[in-house]
Amino acid sequence: MRTYLLWMIVFALMVYAWRSWFVSTCGLILLSVVMQRRDFPSYLMGINGLNAWNLLLLATLVPAFVQIAGGQRKIDVPRSVIILFGTFSFMIFVAYARTATDLGALAVDVRHSFIGFTGDFLINRVKFVLPAALLFVGCRTRAQIRLAGITILLAATCYATLVIKTVPISTIFSESKSEFMRYRHRIDRDIGLMAIDMSMLFAGSCWAIVCFVVLAVKRKLHKVVMLGVASLVFLALLLCHSRGSYVGFAAASFVLVCARWRKAIILFPIGIAAIFTFFPAVPARLGMGLAEQDVSGHSTQNWEEITAGRTTDLWPAAVEQIGREPVFGIGAYASLRPEVRGKWQEIGTAPFHPHNAYLELLLDMGIVGFIPVMCFYGGVFVMTLRLFMSKGDGLAAAIGGMGLANITVLLVTALGAQSFYPTQSTMLHWCSWALALRVSVSLSIAQRARAMQGRALRAKVTRVRPQPWTPGIQTPEASHRGMGA
To answer: For residue range 151-193, what is the model confidence (pLDDT) as tens digits?
Structure first.
């Protein structure tokens, strides 16, 4: 029954896209919440990739392209963004092409066919950015910008609801590792995203909701409701038990407070003390491996436990391979190549990712690709920071705060996991950045329009001043008065 209802909603959005593909894009964003669930229809007529989400994306792109091609919609992307994002996209394609021409170099047990590799690495990167591009082109009014922002926050809230339904709330009050670790795999199994991905999403979304409450929402009832939603998302963050996202949340808190609410920085110690007091699982999770007893009874630090094998097993092998190909890297899915994967297998592990997004970029693209990608994300950080610090428009500042929180959390959590490639777990991030870019462009256009109107008004009211009188020279006014006498 739920499947039939899903197809009815998808079909309605596909048809409505010809009337307003912006609304269908918002529906597409919300639909992404359930696209990885086990009961979500993954195939249609046995065709790989032909599912409800992809069909709705295609049905939304067609009318959008028709309007853009017909000149009804203008793609007014700033030149700097075109250069940064274009370089980023080009480096992804280069990494793809290097591996696509040498698929046999991948480990035998995970070797992809050309079609499968293209769909997994290239097409999936593109399709998770397309909703963000549609938001940028489609948002033209203040109401549409507000609706897009609420849609992004609503999608994060739906994710939070699913996590709360999956993991018992009692786990955040327990200091036992086994008590909460055994539920983490259920998030991936039942929702479709890993706990570290979900927690990263919640860490940014929680502050995004707070920014809307403080800066954009006027009615008290709406403020109370959204604060309740923020509490729900924060609870889901705690239930994921991800140390990286805890640190990412703290980093986002520090950046946002220092950028706009500096007086509130005094509340940091109080907030940390309250979290550690009321949620014992948080300090227990953060303190794993910091004070273990060795055989002699002395307290020692177990870095294998603290970093989950990253500093002891995964990162050294990745850094060794980066040192061999530091300039250009070795292509996409470098972690699946024998020279990297073989090192990990020697120490008893064989992951598909170095558990560090920075190392992943260096492995795949080298320094040549690493620098432009970091420049792109640095540009996103600067853009959202400026928008968040802007005065006079609360909605614009709230959109900037949402994007700033997401980019800060991503840059911090990327140290222990995540990926700088577009993925489903970062799709809402890309949507928030595209929305922030649209607001920035709209504000720039409005400022230029006001400046032009001001210049035109000054030119209209300016009078030609009379020439100063000089002895022996009669001004026209004086000559006229003399003839009239």
So the answer is: 999 999 999 999 999 888 888 887 666 667 777 778 888 888 8
| Residue 386 placed within a domain | yes
My answer on whether 70 and 98 are in the same domain is no
* Single-letter residue type at 181: M
Long-range contacts of 162-170 (CB under 8 A, 24+ apart): 162/33, 162/190, 162/191, 163/187, 163/191, 163/198, 163/202, 163/236, 163/239, 163/240, 164/232, 164/235, 164/236, 164/239, 166/190, 166/191, 167/239, 167/240, 169/235, 169/239
Q: Tell me, yes or no, whether 470 lies in a domain.
A: no
Residue 460 lies in a domain: no
Per-residue pLDDT at 478 exceeds 50: no
Tell me if 481 is assigned to some domain: no
CB 439 within 8 A of CB 143: no
- Domain range enclosing 25: 1-74
Return the structure tokens found at 200.
């990263």
Within this chain, do residues 120 and 67 fall inside the same structural domain, yes or no? no
Say if residue 94 is in the same domain as residue 147.
yes
pTM of the model: 0.88
Residues 26 and 157 in one domain: no
Whether 64 and 210 map to the same domain: the answer is no
Chain segment 450-459, per-residue pLDDT in tens = 888 888 877 7
Those residues whose C-beta lies under 8 Å from the C-beta of residue 354, and which sit 6 or more positions away, are 314, 315, 318, 335, 340, 360, 363
Gap between the Cα atoms of 339 and 326, Å rounded? 15
The pair of structure tokens assigned to 295 is 């055989």
DSSP code of 18?
T
Reported confidence tier of residue 471, pLDDT bands at 50, 70, 90: very low
